[in-house]
């Protein structure tokens, strides 16, 4: 349905989210995506007809087992992996914990003599996802592991030179997210992974914001462990995966019946895994069709419209080119992010990372505090996603009465959060 309401301001017209027919316009797609109807259709048979346990050897277990195999193959294809390198989990946080704690605990038990001169060492960055930071804190608290938290530069990037300088002969693992969930900045993962390997360390990346959004090939980036998340790519919440390079052994978090090659015990959620496999297929098709290029065009159009409406007041947070095609993090002179969002109740947006409800991510807030004061210390990350057209549909805007602002509206299937 097309909404032709005229609010008397600059707008970009867009198609409404098929799942959203009334109420505020949803602008938090980096926090979670709606479930693609095709993923829903794919999972339903495994809540009814094909209810069997995939580990059962009788007829009722055959189709659920085959469905998991199909999904594993589809996820592997999306990231250039082998099917037997994919471990299904219940969330991105679980995948991160399995990768980080699993790798470090394996090193602790397998090479105890190595730690005579000091504890195992992990390198990460200050602006990591909370799941990564929490896993690192737990290793320090429970096992005495030493962790180095690298800063990012003015563009939000980890310096390869600083990264190399942080590695020691006790470094077991480095974990750096591929793209930040609020700024959209994409880290030089292939370069960092090569540096880590040269120092004898493993490399993990949380790719929740990149898989399905830009091409990701585990062989090309050279990582040992990679996290991907279903609800960031139009699959349901409650399902994710961890890529574990062939031949790499890590300690499981959950022991039990031996599912997922012994790395994640518990009867598999066949329905959600099937939906993730379907979402992976759909994402691969979008990538092949050039969806990232189309989204980058929409992102740049949004920035240009804002700059035209607010000349000299709009600034991009993060690297100008090393960023996700669907995410644009902006700050506006003289306007706090919460004030901006309060002025537009027609928009449903978060006031920071969804993992820090009600407050910006602390590390990102510190990073923004180092920006020039004239540019403000808050911003809004915008992101577009399929099926965003360039015309027709529902306009969204801010009224000119709000502090004299007149920025354009959003494209459907997009996200915004305040930093």
Task: Describe the protein in words.
The protein is of the alpha/beta class. It folds into two domains: 12-29 and 290-416, Aspartate Aminotransferase, domain 1 (Alpha-Beta Complex), CATH 3.90.1150.10; 40-286, Aspartate Aminotransferase, domain 2 (3-Layer(aba) Sandwich), CATH 3.40.640. Helix content is 32%, strand content 15%. It is built from eleven helices and 15 strands. It has helices spanning 37-43, 59-79, 92-110, 130-143, 160-166, 189-198, 218-221, 270-288, 291-309, 337-342, 362-369, and strands at 12-14, 25-26, 86-89, 121-125, 146-150, 171-175, 202-206, 225-229, 240-244, 314-316, 327-332, 347-348, 380-384, 394-396, 414-416. Strands 3-9-8-7-6-4-5 form a seven-stranded mixed β-sheet, sandwiched between helices. A four-stranded antiparallel β-sheet has the order 10-11-13-15, with helices on one face. Strands 1-14 form a two-stranded antiparallel sheet. It is globular.
């Amino acid at each position: 349905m097309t909404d032709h309401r005229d609010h008397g301001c600059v707008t970009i017209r867009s198609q409404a989210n098929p799942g959203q027919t009334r109420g505020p316009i949803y602008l938090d797609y980096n926090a979670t995506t709606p479930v693609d109807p095709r993923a829903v259709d794919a999972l339903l048979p495994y809540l009814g007809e094909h209810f069997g346990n995939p580990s059962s050897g009788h007829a009722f277990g055959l189709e659920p087992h085959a469905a998991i195999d199909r999904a594993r193959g589809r996820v592997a294809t999306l990231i250039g992996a082998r099917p037997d390198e994919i471990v299904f989990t219940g969330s991105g946080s679980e995948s991160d914990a399995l990768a980080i704690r699993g790798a470090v605990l394996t090193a602790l038990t397998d090479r105890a003599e190595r730690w005579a001169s000091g504890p195992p060492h992990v390198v990460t960055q200050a602006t990591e996802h909370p799941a990564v930071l929490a896993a690192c804190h737990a290793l320090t608290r429970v096992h005495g592991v030493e962790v180095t938290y690298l800063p990012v530069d003015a563009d939000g990037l980890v310096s390869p030179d600083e990264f190399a300088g942080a590695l020691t002969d006790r470094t077991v693992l480095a974990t750096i997210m591929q793209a930040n969930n609020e700024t959209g900045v994409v880290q030089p993962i292939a370069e960092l992974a090569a540096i880590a390997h040269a120092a004898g360390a493993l490399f993990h990346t949380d790719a929740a914001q990149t898989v399905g959004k830009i091409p990701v090939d585990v062989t090309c980036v050279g990582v040992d462990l990679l996290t991907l998340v279903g609800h960031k790519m139009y699959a349901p919440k409650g399902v994710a995966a961890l890529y574990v390079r062939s031949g790499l052994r890590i300690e499981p978090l959950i022991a039990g019946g031996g599912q997922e090659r012994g790395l994640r015990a518990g009867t598999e959620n066949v329905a959600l895994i099937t939906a993730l496999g379907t979402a992976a297929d759909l994402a691969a098709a979008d990538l092949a069709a050039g969806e990232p290029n189309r989204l980058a065009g929409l992102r740049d159009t949004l920035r240009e419209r804002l700059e035209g409406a607010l000349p000299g007041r709009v600034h991009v947070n993060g690297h100008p080119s090393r960023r996700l095609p669907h995410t644009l993090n902006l700050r506006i002179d003289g306007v706090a992010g919460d004030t901006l969002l309060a002025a537009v109740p027609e928009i449903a947006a978060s006031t920071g990372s969804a993992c820090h409800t009600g407050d910006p991510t602390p590390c990102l807030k510190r990073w923004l505090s180092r920006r020039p004061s004239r540019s403000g210390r808050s911003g809004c990350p915008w992101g577009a996603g399929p099926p965003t057209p360039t015309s027709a549909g529902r306009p969204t805007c801010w009224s000119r009465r709000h502090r004299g602002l007149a920025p354009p509206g959003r494209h459907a299937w997009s996200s915004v959060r305040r930093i």
